[in-house]
Each structure stands twice: as structure tokens, then as C-alpha cells.
Specification:
Keywords: DNA-binding, Transcription, Transcription regulation
Radius of gyration: 18 Å
Distance between the termini: 58 Å
Structural class: mainly alpha
Shape: globular
Pfam family, one: TetR_N
Organism: Pelomonas lactea
Protein name: TetR/AcrR family transcriptional regulator
Strand content: under 5%
Length: about 190
Amino acid sequence: MKVTRAQAEENRERILDNAAQLFRERGFDGIGLNDLMQAAGLTRGGFYGHFESKDDLAAQATQRALQANRTQWKQQTERSLPAWVKTYLSDAHRDHPGAGCGLAALAGDAARGGAAVKGVFAEGVESLVATLQGQMPAADEGGRREQALAMLSTLVGALLLSRAVGDGALSRELREAARSQLPAGG
């Protein structure tokens, strides 16, 4: 049965959506092509009709995850930056990386990834910094960028470390300390 162009595009989008979630949950090396394609309801045989390699999929899925982050961050920070910081550093966000921040979930993989993944990751960081920059209290553009970089680094670092130490007192301490040091931490 021949797949229409529209169905092929729909399949590709489904693969990307599933890969963005599964890579955040398990990492690039934590899931194989068979499982990625099965999650999308497809067979491995169709993979190379959509992507050149697993690295190509990793770069595109990372881009998808970080674009979703930017959209969410923009909406939430414009409503209430302190409430967003609290949500970002919550137990729920710590415990559900597949639905959460791509920066925290994929940073380690991106650091070990190829040039395409690193390029996408760098673009994602710049995009998220720009989203935060407009919310920073500094008087000038350079100061707001510096505050946004510090905020992003603090948030991602605290979330990443709190995931690494598990559910416990140290996890809470890390996130509370980060929150208290941020301009909008509350």
C-alpha cells in the first residue's frame, strides 16, 4: 500500500514528537531505532525514508523539544516569572523529564553529540536566553542578557542536579537554593 505524501509527513511528525519525548526520558543512547519507530506506530524499515541517521533524528528531535520549551517559557514567563520559576523547579518537573525542559534532559547527550546536535542545542539556548532576557530587571541590554544567562544556568543546573540525586532532602535543597538566588525566584 502506497503512503501518500500527507501521510508520510504525518508519520515524520509523529516520529519527531515521540523521539523528542523519549530522548528526554532515556537519552540518545538509551533507546534504539526499533523502539523509537514502534512508539510512533511504525516499523524500523521506514526510518531511513524520513531521516539520514539516528544523529539526524537526534538533532531534529532536540530542535523540536527546545522549540516547545521556548513557546511554553514565553507564555509562562509573560504571565508570571516567579510562578514559572516555582513550576520549573517543582517535584513534578524533576520527576517527568520526558515532558519537561529539553535543556536539562538533553544537555549531557548534546555535549557528547555531533556538530548538528550541538548547533541545534546552541540555537535553543540562545532562543531561551532571549525569552528570559526581556523579563530581567537590569537597566541595560547587556545586564539583562547576563542575568538571563545566569538564570538559565541556575535553573537548568539545579534541575539537573536534583534529578541526579533523586527524591530527597538534597534534591529539595538544591532547587530551593536556586530559587532563592534568582531575581524572580520569590
